[in-house]
Amino acid sequence: MEWNPQDLHTLSQCFVNTLSPSPEPRRRAEAILSDFSQKPNYGLAVLRLVAEPNVAEEIRQAASVNFKNHLKVRWSPAPNSDEPRIQDAEKEQIKALIVSLMLNATPRIQGQLSEALVLIGKHDFPRLWPNLLPELTGSLQKASQAGDYASINGILGTANSIFKKFRHEFKTNELLYDLKYCLENFAAPLLEIFLKTANLIESAANADATALKPLFESQRLCCRVFFSLNYQELPEFFEDHMNEWMTEQMKYLANSYPALENSADGLALVDELRAAVCENINLYMEKNEEEFQAYLNGFALAVWNLLTTVSQSPSHDQLAVTAIKFLTTVSTSVHHSLFAGEGVIPQICQGIVIPNVMLRDEDTELFEMNYIEFIRRDMEGSDLDTRRRIACELLKGIATNYKPQVTNLVSLQIQNLLTSFAANPEKNWKDKDCAIYLVVSLATKKAGGTSVTTDLVDVQSFFGSVIVPELQSQDVNGFPPMLKAGALKFFTMFRTHIPKPMTLQFFPDLIRFLCAESNVVHSYAASCIEKLLLVKDESGQARYTSVDISPVLPQLMNNLFEALQVPESEENQYIMKCIMRVLGVADISREIVGPCITGLTSVLNKACENPKNPVFNHYVFESVAVLVKRACGKDAPLIAVFEINLFPSIQKILVEDVQEFYPYALQLLAQLVELNRPPIPQSYMQIFPMLLSPDLWRKASNVPALVRLLQAFLKKAPHELNQEGSLRQVLEISNKLVSARSTDEQGFYVLNTVVESLDFNVIVPYIGQIWSSLFTVLQTRQSPKYIKCLLIFMSLVLVKHGSTNLVESVNGIQANLFLMILGQFWISNLTHITGFIETKLTAVASTRLLCESQMLLDAAAVEHWGKLLNSIITLLSRAEQDRVEEDPEMPEFAENVGYSATFIRLHNAGKTEDDPLKDIRDAKEFLVTSLARLSAQFPGRYPQIISQYVEPANQAELLRLCNSYNCQIGPGTVDP
Q1: CB-based contacts of 552: which residues, under 8 Å, 6+ apart?
Q2: What pLDDT shows up at residue 382?
Q3: For the chain, give me the number of helices (H) and strands (E)?
Q4: Which residues face 453 on adjacent strands?
């Protein structure tokens, strides 16, 4: 695209039209711009339009957004993307222009260009853009000399964004090389502008807010760059100049700035700078404690004083959290003695912890207006950056070295809070909430388990006196709902401590709370029930069984489904997870099946219209699957009930191509097919032709579920599938799957089921093509996974259809090919097989090869015979971890790029593993008895071969097995 007046006018008009309120001109303009973007130099042309002073501001701003988005897609497109890549020559011109254009732009356009610059830097800096940092530092020095803080802050903001990678990436030599380059070019100019701005702030401390704001923003950005450049390790430059940095940063914590702090936006700016300083000193405490020691006392005192003056306003949250986090880091360090002074811990508890743990109006508003976010913070532990959580973390940190003092103090505080509540429950309910929160948040989780413990209170006594009154409240919607939520959370957290009789006594109360109008309360009630059903006693047995919940089951299920009707809980994942868990434990009768399947299909049909919550949707399908499994396992005729109710929903998903639910629907279909007894109803067989459509298999996330359903049909209706060329189509699908590394295992699953389900005479016409395809792939893909799959498949052919059919069909491809496969792949990889059924299958198949195959019984094959026996003994006698090395395979990017792993297996619809050798219980016994029979046919032949080719340790193991099973391999059986 050339830059000329005509193009300028066309582009300008297009960007004007993109701002049009009318959809038609807007869509037309977007289409034209999309076409233009395919042409070379489009990005450069748009950037020049952004720089054109005679073009209206709103047009240039729209162009700057388009330019940024163009770079996002085209600067370094994904390898499998169809988007054309910006050419190198155009890239160089863009890089030459963008810094100066950004610095001279108006604030809104500057922000877009800065983001575009960062996008380029992410891919090109510093290796492919060595001029960037010198250009930025040169511009910074010019702007500093001119006192142009708009440009200074633009440069610092860009540098901050570019250097952020040093916070997030793992330490590598390449990253440290880049860091060294940045330090050499930017550390000194950064300190220079930081100190200059600090002097300007001191001299202008009483100036008006307008003059101070850009200076404070500059210092905040300097501190953020400081954080990035110091994150990986302490650079020598910063160690040498630590005094300058720390002296100035201390001032921002200790001093006040009335000119700014008298206005809300000015105070926010000061707070942001102080929070950045707290982040820096916390970083130094965590990583450079020894070097930072000289400054620690001063900063600790400054932070302490700061926290006593910070208000409870949400605008101060970031500062409060970062400041408390610093004290927490100090409390767990070797300098924890700062907290040992008399009265220090009580002051922290009274002055910092309790005020920050106490509920605020903002917390109540979140509880009422955004229950999902409230639960995410309160129950799921994502509240580490909230005042309540970080204040408790400070107490935990201090307790690391002063546990008795903290425990006694907090226990006293809890009693005081509860006394305050008792004096006036309606007015002081937040005190009780605070007491419950302290007990729950300061509980410690036992290693290796889900149970928690606390030294602050006697759990059962606290439960009886503090929690039970809330649970027994007859009005589930009574004020305040937050106390009821806190009580339910305590019950959930300490569920293992509450005796079973006491829990069962309050189970009806939990069911009542499912009817609460508060989304948080009925979510916590559902979560409590769900977690209780997972509790195990010390013996490992479930504490609560179907017997315990049967008396309340109808009411429980009714209330759960009713809760899903409450506004904003229509897709409540905690309710649906509880439904799934209850159905997995309860005794499923016909009386329960009806309302449950009706409720679940109703929910499913609504979700199909607009799938939004993937966690909720997963639990819906798991609930359906567990209901089908447990109901039909007990009462087979119920299959018809499920078919009537589920088929319309499944059909809707498949016909309307609801992609999010496609794999789930296929898994449910497979489950229903497997539960049916042959002959399979025609309603299922009508689905089978759809399975053979190549288009359906192109979406990678569908493949595992499609394979699962195909396997179900092959097992239940093998003869029907041999009609009308269906088997040929099935084998074509398996061949395509095997050909791709990402799906080869799925292809073998299909082949395994074909071999298991069909007679060999049915497979014979295709067996040559099967072997040819598999061995062709083997020539180029000798990965451990592929070879293991191949060995399992060949073993299955052998045990199902005999060694002769296996050997002859392979040799039909090429003379003596089987012996070559045996020598190069089978023997050496047999010991890598894992899994009980797979190990048994391959060991028995290999044993049958040893003792039945004429090829191996030939005198010319003694070496193969001996080495194969050695591998069988290793396979059967050594633990998996002793014979299998971890060998994670590197994915082939050409095959895996763009693969969307959206398939999620339904646990409750899982395929049961079939043992193809049910009549053989012990593979070791099968080995030695088979060898004994063979040895009896050829007396004296095999001890010598064993002695020559089997390792001494395996010879000893074979002798032990012979003795264990009272078998003998010829006279003088191997006695090493």
Answers
A1: 507, 508, 511
A2: 62
A3: 53, 2
A4: 444
> CA separation (Å) from 399 to 392, 395, 405, 506?
10, 6, 8, 34
- Among 927, 773, 919, residue whose Cα is nearest residue 842: 927
Kindly report, residue by residue over 222-246, the tens digit of the pLDDT.
999 999 999 999 999 999 999 999 9
Distances (CA, A) of 744 to 667, 778, 783, 821: 20, 11, 11, 19
d(CA 214, CA 220): 10
What does DSSP assign to residue 587? Answer: -
Distance CA 368, CA 877 (A): 62
CA dihedral defined by 753, 755, 761, 765, rounded to 10 degrees? 90
Q: For 619, phi and psi rounded to 5 degrees?
A: -65, -30
Task: Give the type of residue at 584.
Answer: G
**Beta-carbon contacts of residue 56 (< 8 Å; ≥ 6 apart):** none
Strand partners, 445: 452
pLDDT confidence of 723, banded at 50, 70, 90?
A: confident
Sign of the Cα torsion 895, 900, 906, 909 reads negative
- What one-character DSSP code corresponds to residue 699? S
Residue pLDDT, tens place only, 462-496? 999 999 999 999 899 988 999 999 999 999 999 99
Q: In this structure, are residues 164 and 229 in contact, taking their beta carbons and an 8 Å threshold?
A: no
pLDDT level of residue 451 (50, 70, 90 thresholds): confident
Half-sphere exposure of 682 (CA within 13 A, CB side): 0
- What CA–CA distance (Å, rounded) separates 466 from 120? 58
- CA atoms within 13 Å, Cβ hemisphere of 31: 6
- Report the percent of the chain where pLDDT is more than 90: 70
The span from the CA of 241 to the CA of 763, in Å, is: 79
User: How confident is the model at residue 82, as a pLDDT?
Assistant: 61
**Greater model confidence, 448 or 750:** 750
- Provide the β-strand partners of residue 528: none
Query: 962: how many CB neighbours lie within 10 A of its CB?
Result: 19
Are 400 and 451 in contact, with CB atoms under 8 Å apart? no
Neighbours of 831 (CB within 10 A): 19
Q: What local confidence, expressed as pLDDT, does residue 156 receive?
A: 95
Q: How far is CA 230 from CA 180, 224, 276, in A?
A: 11, 10, 13
Q: What is the pLDDT of residues 733-769, one digit of tens each?
A: 999 999 988 899 999 999 999 999 999 999 999 999 9
114-132, pLDDT tens digit by residue?
A: 999 999 998 999 999 999 9
Do 253 and 303 meet the contact criterion of CB atoms below 8 Å apart? yes
The answer to whether the pTM exceeds 0.90 is no
Burial pattern 498-524, b for ≥16 Cβ within 10 A else e, equals beeeebbebbebbbbbbbbebbbbbbb
Total count of residues recorded for the chain: 976
* Mean pLDDT of all residues belonging to the chain: 90
Residue 1 has pLDDT above 60, yes or no: no
Tell me the C-alpha distance between 176 and 182, whole Å.
10
Sign of the Cα torsion 468, 469, 472, 476 reads: negative
Half-sphere exposure at residue 443, Cβ-oriented, CA atoms within 13 angstroms: 23
